[in-house]
C-alpha cells in the first residue's frame, strides 16, 4: 500500500517521521537524487553527501512544499541540484564532460538506457524530452549545461568557445522555446482528451 | 534600484529562473520583481520549466546502505524537535541556492521577507548539523549577502579529503571592485571565541578561500567573514546545534 502511495502522501508521511513512509520515500527517489548529484559532482563520495543532505533538507522543510507549484520529484531534485552546485563551485572546477551532459536526454531514452530509468520516465518527462529534442543543438547544449549543471552563461561561453552574448542568447532562447513547446503540448493533449 | 522596465526584466527572466544572474543584474531584477505581479507570473512559468529540466537527469544506484544512513541521520535530527517547530530554514541567506521563482513558489512568506529586508546588510544562516551522526555526510552550505544583497558569499564546510578535519571553502562575489582582505573565523560548537583561520582576498570583485581546519564539520557552529578592520561581521553563517 505504502509503495504505491502518491508522492505527496509519501512526503507527508516522511515529514512526520513515519518509518514506512520514510523508507518508501527514500527508495522511490534515491536513484534520481543520487544520479543527479553524481552527474554534477562526479565524485561518488561527495555525491552521497549531497544526496543525504538533500533528503535531510526535504524532511526539514517538507511543510514548505506546494503541490500546486510543482511535483515532488522536481522539488527534491531542485534541492539536490542546488546543493551539488554549491559544493562543486567551491571545491573544485567543473569536472563534468559537457558532451556527456549534453547527451543526457539521449542517454535516458537510447537503447542503452537502464530499464529503471525508462520506467521512471513518465509522460511529463517524455514530453519534456521531445520538446528539448526539438530545440536546435546549440541551444539544447547551452540550456542543459545551465539548467542541469548550473553553469553560468560565462562558463557556458568558455566551455562552448562562444562569445558571452551568444551563450546568453542560446540559454534564454532555449528556455523560452522549451516553455512554449511544453505549453502547446499540454494544450494539445487537453484538446485531444476533451 | 528598481529601474528595469518589464521588457528589460523579460530579457533577464530566463537567466534568473535558471539562477544564473549575479551582482547588479540580479539585484535589479529582484527589485523589479518585488513590485511587478505580471513579471512574477512570467518568472514562475519559466522557473517551472527550468525545474522540469531536472527530471531528465540520469538515475544512479547509490552506494549500499544509503537508505539506512539517511534514516539514521533523520533519526538523530528528530531527537531535537519536530520540523515545524524548528528555526525557519529560509532566512535571508539560506543554506540552499536561492532562486526567486522557486523560493516564491514554495516558501512565499520567506521570500517576501527576504525581499523586504533589502536594507539588511548581513544575512544570517540557521542550518542544522548532526554532531552525533557517525557518517561522513556532513556537508554544510550557506549563501549570505551584504551590501543590500549586492554582494554574495557562498560558504561550504565538508569533511576533509583524508577524512580528517573539515574543509571550509568560501566564494565571494562583491558589488565593489575595490581590493579587499577579510579575516575568516570559525565558531566552534564547543563554545568559546571564534578562531581565525585565515583571510580571503577579493580582487576585481571576486574572492575564494579554501582551508582545512582540525575539527569535524559537526563541530563547527558557524563561519564568519569580518570586515577588514576585524571588528564588524560582514558575512555570517550559523549552523545551529541539534
Explain this structure.
- The complex is a heterodimer of chains A (194) and B (242).
- With 194 residues, chain A is an all-alpha fold.
- Chain A has two domains: 1-95, Orthogonal Bundle (Rna Polymerase Sigma Factor, Chain: A), CATH 1.10.1740; 97-194, Winged helix-like DNA-binding domain superfamily/Winged helix DNA-binding domain (Arc Repressor Mutant, subunit A), CATH 1.10.10.10.
- Chain A contains eleven helices and no strands.
- Residues 105-121 of chain A have low confidence and may be disordered.
- Chain B has a domain at 83-90 and 121-240: Immunoglobulin-like (Sandwich).
- Chain B has six helices and nine strands.
- Chain B has a nine-stranded mixed beta sheet with strand order 1-9-8-5-6-7-4-3-2, with no helix packed on it.
- Classes of the chains: A mainly alpha (194), B alpha+beta (242).
- Chains A and B meet through helix 2, helix 3, helix 4, helix 6 and helix 7 of A and helix 1, helix 3, helix 4, helix 5 and strand 3 of B.
User: The CATH topology of the largest domain in chain A is what?
Assistant: Arc Repressor Mutant, subunit A
CATH topology of the domain at 83-90 and 121-240 in chain B: Immunoglobulin-like
Provide the CATH architecture of the largest domain in chain A: Orthogonal Bundle
- Helices and strands of chain A, in order, run as HHHHHHHHHHH
CATH architecture of the domain at 83-90 and 121-240 in chain B: Sandwich
Rg for CA atoms of chain A: 18 Å
The tally of strands of chain B reads: 9
Unreliable sequence segments of chain A: 105-121
Distance between the termini of chain B: 39 Å
Arithmetic mean of pLDDT of chain B: 70
User: CATH homologous superfamily of the largest domain in chain A?
Assistant: Winged helix-like DNA-binding domain superfamily/Winged helix DNA-binding domain
Shape of chain A: flat
Protein chain pair with the most extensive contact, residues per chain: A-B, 84 and 68 residues
Biggest sheet record of chain A: none
Helix content of chain A: over 70%
Put simply, the count of helices of chain A is 11
Strand order of the largest sheet of chain B: 1-9-8-5-6-7-4-3-2
For this structure, what is the CATH class of the largest domain in chain A?
Mainly Alpha
Q: Main sheet of chain B, how many strands, which sense, barrel? A: 9 strands, mixed
Radius of gyration of chain B: 19 Å
Amino acid at each position: 500500500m505504502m509503495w504505491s502511495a502518491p508522492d505527496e502522501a509519501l512526503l507527508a508521511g516522511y515529514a512526520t517521521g513515519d518509518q514506512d513512509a520514510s523508507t518508501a520515500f527514500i527508495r522511490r527517489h534515491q536513484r534520481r537524487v543520487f544520479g543527479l548529484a553524481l552527474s554534477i559532482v562526479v565524485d561518488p563520495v561527495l555525491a552521497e553527501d549531497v544526496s543525504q543532505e538533500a533528503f535531510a533538507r526535504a524532511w526539514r522543510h517538507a511543510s514548505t512544499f506546494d503541490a500546486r507549484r510543482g511535483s515532488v520529484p522536481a522539488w527534491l531534485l531542485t534541492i539536490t541540484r542546488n546543493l551539488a552546485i554549491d559544493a562543486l563551485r567551491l571545491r573544485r572546477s567543473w569536472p563534468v564532460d559537457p558532451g556527456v551532459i549534453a547527451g543526457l536526454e539521449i542517454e535516458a531514452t537510447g537503447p542503452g538506457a537502464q530499464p529503471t530509468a525508462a520506467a521512471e520516465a513518465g509522460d511529463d518527462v517524455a514530453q519534456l524530452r521531445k520538446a528539448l529534442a526539438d530545440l536546435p543543438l546549440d541551444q539544447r547544449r547551452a540550456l542543459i549545461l545551465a539548467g542541469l549543471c548550473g553553469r553560468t552563461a560565462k562558463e557556458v561561453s568558455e566551455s562552448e568557445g562562444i562569445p558571452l552574448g551568444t551563450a546568453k542568447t542560446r540559454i534564454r532562447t532555449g528556455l523560452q522555446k522549451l516553455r512554449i513547446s511544453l505549453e502547446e503540448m499540454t494544450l494539445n493533449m487537453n484538446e485531444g482528451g476533451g | 534600484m528598481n529601474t528595469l522596465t518589464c521588457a528589460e526584466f523579460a530579457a533577464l527572466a530566463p537567466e534568473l529562473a535558471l539562477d544564473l544572474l549575479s551582482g547588479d543584474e540580479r539585484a535589479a531584477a529582484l527589485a523589479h520583481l518585488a513590485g511587478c505581479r505580471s513579471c512574477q507570473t512570467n518568472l514562475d512559468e519559466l522557473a517551472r520549466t527550468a525545474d522540469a529540466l531536472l527530471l531528465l537527469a540520469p538515475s544512479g544506484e547509490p552506494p549500499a546502505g544509503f537508505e539506512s544512513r539517511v534514516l539514521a541521520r533523520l533519526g538523530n535530527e528528530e531527537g531535537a524537535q519536530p520540523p515545524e517547530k524548528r528555526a525557519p530554514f529560509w532566512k535571508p541567506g539560506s543554506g540552499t541556492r536561492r532562486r526567486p521563482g522557486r523560493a516564491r513558489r514554495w516558501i512565499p512568506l520567506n521570500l517576501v521577507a527576504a525581499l523586504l529586508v533589502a536594507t539588511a546588510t548581513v544575512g544570517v544562516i540557521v542550518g542544522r548539523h548532526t554532531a552525533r551522526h557517525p557518517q561522513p555526510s556532513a556537508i554544510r552550505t550557506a549563501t549570505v549577502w551584504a551590501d543590500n544583497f549586492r554582494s554574495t558569499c557562498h560558504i561550504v564546510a565538508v569533511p576533509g579529503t583524508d577524512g580528517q578535519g573539515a574543509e571550509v571553502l568560501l566564494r565571494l562575489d562583491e558589488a565593489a571592485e575595490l581590493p579587499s582582505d577579510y579575516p575568516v573565523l570559525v565558531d566552534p560548537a564547543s563554545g568559546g571565541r571564534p578562531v581565525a583561520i585565515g583571510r580571503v582576498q577579493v580582487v576585481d570583485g571576486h574572492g575564494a578561500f579554501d582551508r582545512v581546519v582540525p575539527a569535524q564539520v559537526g563541530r563547527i557552529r558557524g563561519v564568519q567573514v569580518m570586515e577588514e578592520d576585524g571588528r564588524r561581521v560582514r558575512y555570517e553563517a550559523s549552523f545551529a546545534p541539534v
